[in-house]
Write a structure and sequence with these properties.
Elements (H helix, E strand, L loop, with lengths): L2 H20 L4 H22 L16 H15 L3 H16 L6 H20 L5 E3 L3 E3 L11 H11 L5 H4 L4 H10 L1
Antiparallel strand pairs: 1-2
Length: about 180
């Protein structure tokens, strides 16, 4: 699955879940939701490429995990307005949710690196694109975009810009990419 399509898929799931569960949310919460969704999408996309993707094996980063993470982020951000509390929560996401599935220390470090890079980018530079591995820039939705409109906005924005495909972002050799594409 292409990275952009994975992000759009999870943005649809995210907007539906958040609107049913929480209704209206603040612009800062929308940014956190977007960042967590992008990180989850990247990990899910990595699973499509097997052990060549940077992870030593397949892990169950399934779509049922994302609502649990979003629930924790939103509940915590509603009750803790201090920036330090939000930073502590964001730093704990890979440890408490994703690394329970991950067996290898190297893979845990890789998951933490992905989350830390994406979440650090969104918290410290909320108006700049999210940088993934220094290769890809993921556009950030403006504050006036409704969460339900994120998937459509994101697709349009990506069509207008040059976002590399998944294999270049994840630094997967093209021979592996070609063999994956022929199996689809």
């Amino acid at each position: 699955m292409d990275k952009v399509l994975a992000i759009v898929k999870y943005l649809h799931q995210t907007s539906t879940f958040v609107q049913k569960r929480f209704g209206e949310i603040s612009p800062s919460q929308k940014l956190l939701i977007f960042a967590v969704t992008v990180a989850h999408s990247v990990l899910s996309t990595l699973q499509d490429f097997g052990s060549s993707s940077g992870l030593g094996q397949w892990y169950p980063f399934h779509q049922q995990l994302l609502p649990l993470v979003l629930e924790a982020v939103l509940q915590h951000s509603l009750s803790h307005k201090q920036k330090a509390d939000v930073f502590a929560l964001l730093k704990s996401i890979p440890e408490f949710f994703y690394n329970h599935f991950v067996l290898s220390r190297n893979d845990r470090s890789y998951v933490e690196m992905i989350f830390n890079q994406i979440l650090h980018s969104i918290v410290h530079n909320p108006t700049q694109d999210i940088s993934i591995f220094g290769v890809c820039q993921i556009p950030i939705p403006p504050a006036n975009i409704n969460l339900a409109d994120y998937p459509t906005w994101f697709q349009r924005k990506c069509l207008k810009s040059e976002i590399p495909d998944s294999t270049s972002v994840l630094q997967i050799p093209s021979s592996i990419s070609k063999s994956i594409d022929t199996c689809r």
